[in-house]
Amino acid sequence: MTTHPAAQETFARATPVRLWEDGFARDPYSYYAALAAHGPVGWAELAPGVPAYVVTDRRAALDLLHDTETFSHDPRPWESTVADDSPVLGMMRWRPNTLFADGAAHVRYRTSLIDTFDLVEPHDLRARVHRAVHVLVSRIGPHGEADLVADFARPLMALVFNSLFGLPDSQSERLNAALGKMMEGGAQAAEGEAEFGGYVLELIAAKVERRGDDLPSALLDHPAELTPEEVTWQVFLTLGAGHEPTTNLVSNALSRILGNPEYYSTLTNGARPVMDAVVEVLHHETPLANYGIHYAREAVAFHGTWLRAAVPVVISYGALAHFAEQADEDREARPRDASHLSWSAGPHTCPVKQHALLITTEAIERLTQWLPDLEPVLPRERLTWRPGPFHRSLTALPVRFSPRAPDQPGELP
Ligand code: HEM
Predict the structure, then answer these.
(1) Is residue 113 lining ligand 1, measured as CB closer than 6 Å?
(2) Of 108, 102, 98, 104, which is closest to residue 233 (Cα–Cα)?
(3) Residue with CA nearest ligand 1 atom 20
(4) CA of 213 to the centre of ligand 1 (A)
(5) Which of 352, 390, 391 is the best mutation target for the ligand 1 pocket, counting ligand atoms within 8 Å of the beta carbon and taking the most?
């Protein structure tokens, strides 16, 4: 590993900001302020004993995200420096997929994924989301109360992906259970990851045998000629990269809508679009809060900090969005939507942004049409967030409503 006297000096001066602490989940903004106090690049810990640089400055973030010569997405040189059981490995370990690839390999994987998702027409995706919402409202509707994270946002994404994969709804339970265990962490996480792996392996094996009108089949037949193993890894990533952030985009936006009576009362008559709430989330609690992890190919001076090679450089999308919002308030700049980097930028920018936005807005609109008097059980400030450096994720969003069944006669939305 390359070392430099200036690097040691930087580390000695700055106390690492511990993004793994429970306090970070309670009040991320004070942690972002502490990081920004270090300069454009702060010094943090992603887990106890796992150091990382964290970029909180927009100019520095854009420079890094576009500079593929200096920075790589390949974590393998770093991996040899961390314990095998480190809790961050699930999100950071190398796999042969578009997220961890550079150069030609990246273009090949990414293009095949983009082309495949492009085959999903908006009206088709909308219909799948509506069907998924119908399934879930059928389940929760009669009870008059629910947790919109565990009973809606999370299983919604399992249903939508499962249908895009050409599998029956019954399989979505299996997917949801595996992903749920992964989120619980600890021993459950390893079990969940194994079950999740089994689901994807079986799925691809079935599609190799017999193609269908679905995403994995389109990937297998893409002109890039990915092997079944490569397709397995891209599907694994699609679920990993898509499920959790979209679940959180849905539930974080719902928490803003339902916590704000003025918003919600106008929502059902269409005065204020759901997209407004989604944009608010992207500014205040963006789902993928800290990610965009790069590694300097060799030690380099970057925006005033000497970066060592093989140490993660994290983009704080959460801090960037928060500071952009503050700057906008100060100078009333517009348009606000362009000022956050919640979908990243550069070659690894989210390739499925439009699909994720459509899923989110349709799901919320449909749910609030079926259950127009959803009422939060807790005021928004009493909601709690999951610990961990990467995701901005509610632990639960309990609600009450008038019980109903979706096929109740005469009450179609
Ligand atoms: C249908 C849902 C989604 C799918 C399938 C999906 C898929 C992906 C994939 C495959 C990548 C890797 C691209 C590459 O490396 O070339 C990616 C990147 C990214 N996605 Fe998405 N995504 C989804 C939803 C979201 C949502 C809701 C957010 C947050 C607002 C988000 C934020 C990002 C960001 C920030 C990156 C850059 C990765 C990084 O930081 O390293 N995505 N997404």
Answers:
(1) yes
(2) 98
(3) 350
(4) 24
(5) 352
Compute, in angstroms, the gap from residue 352 CA to the centroid of ligand 1.
7
CATH of domain 5-400: 1.10.630.10
Domain boundaries, the chain: 5-400
- The b/e string for 117-137 (b: 16+ C-beta within 10 A; e otherwise) is beebeeeebeebbbebbbebb
Kindly state the DSSP code that residue 14 receives in the 8-state scheme. S
User: Which of 111, 236, 350, 362 has most ligand 1 atoms within 8 Å of CB, for mutation?
Assistant: 350
- CA 55 – CA 38 distance, rounded (Å): 10
- Tell me if 308 CB under 6 Å of ligand 1: no
Report, in angstroms and rounded to the nearest whole number, the Rg of the chain calculated over CA atoms: 21
Using a 6 Å cutoff on CB, does residue 322 contact ligand 1?
no
Determine the atom of ligand 1 nearest the C-alpha atom of 359: 1
pTM: 0.93
In short, whether 91's Cβ falls inside 6 Å of ligand 1 is no
Cα 125 from Cα 357, distance rounded (Å)? 11
Q: Which of 119, 115, 67, 75 is nearest to 99 (CA)?
A: 75
pLDDT in tens, the chain (413 residues): 333 444 444 555 578 999 999 999 999 999 999 999 999 999 999 999 999 999 999 999 999 999 999 999 999 999 999 999 888 998 999 999 999 999 999 999 999 999 999 999 999 999 999 999 999 999 999 999 999 999 999 999 999 999 999 999 889 999 988 888 877 766 787 888 889 999 999 999 999 999 999 999 999 999 999 999 999 999 999 998 999 999 999 999 999 999 676 666 555 554 578 899 999 999 989 999 999 999 999 999 999 999 999 999 999 999 999 888 776 565 554 444 457 899 999 999 999 999 999 999 999 999 998 998 999 999 999 999 999 999 999 999 999 999 987 666 545 45
Atom of ligand 1 nearest to the CA of 293: 41
Establish whether residue 355 lines the binding site of ligand 1, counting it when its CB lies within 6 angstroms of any ligand atom: yes
